[in-house]
Amino acid sequence: MVQALFWGAIAGLSLILGAIVGLFVPLPRKLTGFIMAFGTGVLIGAAAFELLGEIEVASGYSYVIFGFLIGAILFTAAELLISKKGGKERKRSKEKESDHSGLAIFIGSIIDAIPESIIIGVSILKDHTVSWVIVLAIFISNFPEALSSSVGLKKDGYTTRKILFMWIIVFGLTSLSSFMGYVAFKELGGEYMYLVSGLAAGGIIAMVASTMMPEAFEEGGPIVGLLSALGLLCSYILSSGII
Questions:
Q1: Do the beta carbons of residue 46 and residue 181 sit within 8 Å?
Q2: pLDDT at 130 over 80
Q3: From the centroid of its chain, how far is CA 13?
Q4: Distance between CA atoms of 102 and 165, rounded to whole angstroms?
Q5: How does DSSP classify residue 128?
Q6: How many domains does the chain have?
Q7: Of 30, 147, 155, 146, which is closest to residue 98 (Cα–Cα)?
Q8: b/e per residue 15-24 (b: at least 16 CB within 10 A)
Q9: Which of 5, 105, 190, 199 has the fewest beta carbons under 10 Å from its own?
Q10: What DSSP character marks residue 210?
């Protein structure tokens, strides 16, 4: 349980870092695109190698497939709702003069961060140890989200102190969510763990395709394809236990 709490906090730490950079450091958009592209590859690897990894019983495949479809559908529905409220650009750092609601992006970030952190607790249950790939993937994914939201909130008139306080709350929620993921699913049988893993993987792939991939390319250019491939390779190396 303590392990889930700790690693949830580590993954959520990038929210604080992203907020600080958004408020105080003029980070080039292209660099943000590069970070996002690498994170895209790592997230795809986390879904493929960790969450959709080895299936030990034949019936597990149907659970994983069903969970994957439901996860993708649920994220897409949430994405449509968030986009209508002005949060569709929550993973990009570009500033706009209109159609950019910092608060909507912040709410969208919470909707993303909490389920992602629950996955950490689930991964500890599944493998009896923390998944470095999942923690790294969520850490990288959170950074541009907090950066973008902080820029938007500052434009909307929020003070620096209030913005940082808001992200500290989200940071606490991510750690608690990892803990709750561990506690809530602790008594599930193996087949239902496959369902949860598929659910998480489907949500990750839908999120990557709809938010991170297009925005990474827009900000970083063609080289982001190579960086995404390197991120996927990093996931493979970490998952395989080579290092």
A1: no
A2: no
A3: 12
A4: 15
A5: S
A6: 1
A7: 155
A8: bbebbbbbbe
A9: 190
A10: I
Place of tokens 């950066």: 147
**Structural domain boundaries enclosing 58:** 2-240
Task: Please count the other Cβ atoms lying within 10 Å of the Cβ belonging to residue 116.
Answer: 28
CA distance 137 to 29: 20
93 Cβ contact list (under 8 Å, min separation 6): 22, 27, 29, 32, 144, 147, 148, 151, 219
In angstroms, rounded to a whole number, what is the distance separating the alpha carbons of residues 211 and 206? 8
Helix-, strand-, coil-residue percentages of the chain, each rounded to 5: 80, 0, 20
Pick from 211, 183, 230: which is nearest to 45 by CA?
230
> By C-alpha distance, which of 143, 149, 172 is closest to 103?
149
Residue 156: both structure tokens together: 């909307």
Q: What is the DSSP letter of 51?
A: I
Crossing angle (nearest 10°) for helices 224-240 and 132-155: 140
Question: pLDDT band at 101, cuts 50/70/90?
Answer: low
The Cα 204–Cα 197 span in angstroms is 11
Q: Is the pLDDT of residue 57 over 50?
A: yes
Query: What predicted TM-score, i.e. pTM, was given to this entire model?
Result: 0.77
Check if the beta carbon of residue 203 is closer than 8 Å to that of residue 70.
no
